[in-house]
Request: fold
Amino acid sequence: MLAVIGGSGLDSFPDLKIERQEQVQTPFGNPSGPLSFASRDGLEYVFLPRHGADHRIPPHRINYRANIWALKQAGVKNLIGVAAVGGIAANMGPGVVVTPDQIIDYTYGREHTFFDGQFQSVDHIEFGQPYAEELRQRLLSAAKATAVEMLDRGCYGATQGPRLETNAEIKKLQRDGVDLVGMTGMPEASLAKEAGINYACCAVVANWAAGLESEPVSLAQIEEQLSISMGQVCELLMCKEMH
Ligand code: HPA
Reply:
């Protein structure tokens, strides 16, 4: 079974015929929505829209723990987080799809661990390579098979949102070695690791990050780019190389 958490621009998975939906309760509250189960060409999928089916949950209010817990309960072993991002690296402009290999976490105040000494006893995970290499490779093979231009590797910077960044913040991220900036990559990736779920990110560049163009970032352009790119991403996720 392959799980997909859909981000901005992917609140539903239109090409998959949903066979059943399950509203899962977790010790951490409700996930962003019901889990939608579907199968296609012998591969089973479970889909969860990160911001809710009607896109009403902002990045800092997403119940990341409930989402990961619900998927774990459903028996998920492999999870792709689809995420809209701003591009910082020169080769990561709008329309490019990237599977990053590193993360820097700038978020704050989010419930970010299962090992908080309450629900589960204190523990520490190793997180040197935050994404599952095997799953990243599967994404790259699927991209090749569907002729989607996907870049291998990059550092994802997770910011708090919901506002976009200042030009100076993006300069700082650039100095830090961040290639892509988004609001939801953490704590999703580390919670998946804590839960023992293989996790990789399929990052879709929607815009140049703040200050990299003379014009301010346009939200209308972000939406337009995402509506184009997410069609490609759906195709990629449904191809047999993802099995
Ligand atoms: N910054 C943060 N998150 C984003 C951006 C951005 O520029 N574009 C899409 N998600």
Observations:
- The mean pLDDT is 95.
- Residues 84-86, 159, 164-165, 181-183, 206-207, 209, 217, 222 surround hypoxanthine (CB under 6 Å).
